[in-house]
């Protein structure tokens, strides 16, 4: 155990990266836990701090498209178009990797996932550091991603070198990951850049993003896959997550009465009729706010020892698709936990 520096100084955080340290930093999606992508020992520290399986590759963050080109061996036209249209922003492109990039970053794959974040603090850090930052989300593996520096510190205090403070992540769900190595770009993970928006500039394979139970519940199954993260347990709060529809929570007589010892929470767009049934209740004004607040709500539920979190189902368009993807993973991962 050692002390974690908490600072708002980009220069200080960049120094930590330069000397092979680990830095949690803000991005517009979720907070990342970064290390110099070309420093193997530093990258290993990131995996170790998170308890992340070594076979799950991390995203490399860069400041602009020319820096992105330098960590690729080939830059497919579609990747270029996607970055030109949506970056800086919540999109990650998977392209053939540059051989010089340490194998630890890409977990042995021939490809690398690259993202240009738009959060001003993230871009400032990238510019001052001047290199490429390998960064998964700044949570302990299997926990909800942090959307504030406080949440990143709560998970990783004493396990990382530095937390660069900044404003909360304004989007709240991880980036859209698009495999650009095939004939048609394929969505490996839905995010804030919607399938519809991508389809406007390219043919797109939306993939089958609904996880089956074995994928979501099984954390360390080895084996090759083009979307390695999908094998790992993700987005899982300690409580049991249930997806419910609005009609159920706004019905006059709720179908299940309150269990005296069971703590319940609700998050969604509807205002539930039986408010007394819930220990925690968050009504969001729209899907964007729901997405932005979901992970912080999961964490708040843990602090309050909530047993069951009811999450209202939303239509699977735009950000709703990413939100439903995360809700399904969270509910599948907790199905057997009770
Ligand atoms: O919004 C985000 O993407 C955040 C912020 C910090 O940038 N990062 C993030 O990283 O969510 P992480 O490690 O939690 O998720 C990265 C995802 C994983 O599902 C991983 O398997 C996948 O991207 N990935 C990384 N490299 C890949 C590659 N070469 N091919 C396919 N998938 C890859
Ligand atoms: Mg993650």
Question: What is the topology?
Answer:
Blueprint lengths: L4 E3 L2 H9 L4 E3 L6 E5 L3 H11 L8 E3 L3 H6 L6 H10 L4 E6 L6 H4 L4 E5 L4 H10 L3 E2 L14 H8 L5 E3 L11 E4 L6 E4 L5 H5 L13 H5 L22 E5 L1 H4 L14 E5 L11 E4 L3 H17 L4 E5 L6 H15 L5
Helix pairs in contact: 1-6, 11-12
Please explain how this structure is put together.
The chain is of the alpha/beta class. Helices cover 31% and strands 17% of the residues. The protein has twelve helices and 14 strands. It has helices at residues 10-18, 40-50, 65-70, 77-86, 103-106, 120-129, 149-156, 195-199, 213-217, 246-249, 287-303, 319-333, and strands at residues 5-7, 23-25, 32-36, 59-61, 91-96, 111-115, 133-134, 162-164, 176-179, 186-189, 240-244, 264-268, 280-283, 308-312. The strands form two sheets. The chain has a ten-stranded mixed sheet, with helices on both faces. The protein has a four-stranded parallel sheet with strand order 11-14-12-13. A hairpin with a 6-residue loop joins strand 2 and strand 3 (32-36). Helix 11 (287-303) packs parallel to helix 12. The longest helix has 17 residues, at 287-303. Residues 210-225 have low confidence and may be disordered. Bound molecules: threonylcarbamoyladenylate and magnesium ion (MG). The site of magnesium ion (MG) has 3 residues, from loops. Residues 136-137, 145 line the site of magnesium ion (MG).
